[in-house]
């Protein structure tokens, strides 16, 4: 899809540093799918890991080591004693990040005067939005050649029922997002329908914010349904991604030990993870899993980052995925893995209710909650068997109504075509 007027797409991402995880996945997808008529520039963290840098560079895009500010300096486990920091406590962080955004704008506007830019900022928390708004409000950096698209995925301390869960955090989000939406040339988009309603309430808008597509895959080139395993085995995936306690990584040894005695010889349990080696509890869990894998070949462990091709090959051949995620942590927190599994219509088993179960329902997926009254290994094995039988009866989409189909269309639209449409809309 060609733009009405040519532009360069810029991904400004201080979180583009590690060779694994969410930011790496987004960057590798966008770079691999880039259109020849839309030049692509990445502004990454100065400490971007060499393998990721080389992967992005090899696609023909421009990439610059730019940011010194850490994306997650004030988020989650990196700031455990200050869950909801005040503006004063992170003033220096916001000031520095704002200067880095300002320098980025100056670098772009110093280029060819005819070049137009769409700057895309994904995974913005409130402190990033504050810094970006501060940079955009500096009179000497505004340029009609720059258009800004902010993609919001973080919960603004409002739950799915509309209740404020943290008054200070909510105030921080409201202050930052109000400032950002009032800047010239800026449009806000959200990741899912719950975020749309939360930000509508947060900003007192007449209607929900529009959704952006999930930018984790080129959906047009992927099969829509899970494929059968080439070995004829039943593949049950228990974990994907960074090894974290909140994702239930430490629950895996007990879960595996419970499942294996009730699995036949053709069942394969798969665990893929990445780990930086800094958590003793995670290290102990990995040692336990390695010991199990040595004694039972039905458990497959893969330590390391999967390329997009590897990831989708594995997901497309997964018969069932078990989410071990902590229900309290993910009560209002979203997850890209759910959207990936949703594309393949993979049956899901959840240990606890959360945003994940609500989104699975919105996507029309076959899933079940762990029955707490029969959560023994035998009970879990029976639930798995029932889920696999349900999926075998036919395609899930036969039961989808117009609401589910419309929502899936929004989530699984082509990201680059969407960017072009947004750009054209901003210039009419």
> How far apart, in Å, are the first and last alpha carbons?
17 Å
Q: Helix tally?
A: 14
Strand content: 5-15%
Silhouette: globular
Helix content: 25-40%
Low-confidence stretches: 77-82
Series of H and E elements: EHEHEHEHEHEHEHEHEHEHEHEHHH
Task: Walk me through the structure.
- Helix 3 packs across helix 4 (126-136) and helix 7 (252-259) runs parallel beside helix 8.
- Residues 77-82 have low confidence and may be disordered.
- Helix content is 38%, strand content 15%.
- With 428 residues, it is α/β, with parallel strands linked by helices.
- The longest helix has 19 residues, at 91-109.
Keyword list:
428 residues, alpha/beta, 6-stranded parallel beta sheet, 14 helices, 12 strands
Layout of helices and strands:
Blueprint: E1 8-12, H1 22-33, E2 40-45, H2 50-57, E3 62-67, H3 91-109, E4 117-122, H4 126-136, E5 146-152, H5 167-181, E6 186-190, H6 193-202, E7 234-239, H7 252-259, E8 267-273, H8 280-295, E9 299-303, H9 308-316, E10 320-323, H10 336-343, E11 348-350, H11 355-362, E12 367-369, H12 377-392, H13 402-411, H14 415-426
């Amino acid at each position: 899809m060609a733009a009405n007027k040519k532009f360069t797409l810029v991904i400004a991402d201080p979180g583009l540093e590690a060779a694994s995880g969410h930011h790496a996945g987004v960057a590798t997808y966008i770079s691999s799918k880039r259109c020849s008529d839309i030049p692509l520039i990445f502004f990454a963290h100065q400490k971007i890991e060499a393998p990721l840098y080389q992967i992005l560079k090899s696609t023909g895009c421009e990439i610059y080591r730019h940011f010194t500010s850490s994306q997650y300096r004030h988020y989650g486990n990196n700031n455990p004693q200050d869950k909801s920091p005040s503006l004063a406590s992170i003033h220096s962080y916001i000031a520095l990040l704002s200067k880095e955004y300002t320098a980025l704008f100056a670098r772009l506007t110093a280029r060819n005067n005819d070049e137009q830019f769409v700057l895309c900022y994904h995974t913005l928390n409130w402190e990033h939005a504050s810094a970006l708004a501060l940079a955009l409000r500096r009179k000497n950096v505004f340029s009609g050649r720059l258009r800004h698209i902010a993609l919001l995925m973080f919960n603004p301390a409002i739950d799915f029922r509309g209740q404020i869960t943290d008054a200070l955090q909510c105030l921080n989000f409201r202050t930052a997002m109000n400032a950002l939406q009032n800047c010239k040339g800026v449009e806000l988009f959200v990741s899912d329908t719950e975020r749309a309603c939360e930000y509508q309430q947060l900003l007192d808008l007449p209607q929900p914010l529009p959704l952006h597509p999930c930018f984790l895959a080129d959906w047009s080139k992927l099969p829509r349904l899970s494929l059968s395993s080439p070995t004829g085995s039943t593949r049950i995936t228990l974990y994907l991604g960074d090894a974290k306690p909140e994702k239930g990584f430490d629950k895996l040894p007990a879960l595996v030990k419970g499942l294996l005695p009730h699995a036949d010889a053709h069942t394969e349990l798969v665990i893929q993870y990445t780990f930086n080696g800094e958590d003793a509890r995670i290290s102990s869990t990995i040692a336990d899993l390695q010991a199990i894998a040595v004694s039972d070949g039905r458990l497959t462990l893969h330590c390391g980052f999967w390329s997009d091709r590897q990831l989708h090959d594995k997901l497309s051949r997964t018969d069932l995925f078990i989410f071990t995620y902590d229900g309290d942590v993910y009560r209002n927190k979203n997850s890209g893995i759910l959207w990936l599994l949703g594309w393949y219509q993979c049956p899901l088993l959840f240990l606890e209710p959360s945003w994940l179960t609500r989104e699975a329902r919105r996507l029309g997926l076959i899933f079940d909650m762990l029955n707490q009254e029969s959560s023994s290994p035998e009970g879990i094995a029976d639930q798995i068997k029932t889920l696999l039988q349900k999926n075998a009866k036919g395609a899930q989409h036969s039961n989808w109504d117009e609401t589910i189909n419309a929502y899936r269309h929004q989530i699984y639209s082509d990201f680059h075509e969407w960017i072009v449409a947004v750009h054209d809309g901003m210039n009419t």
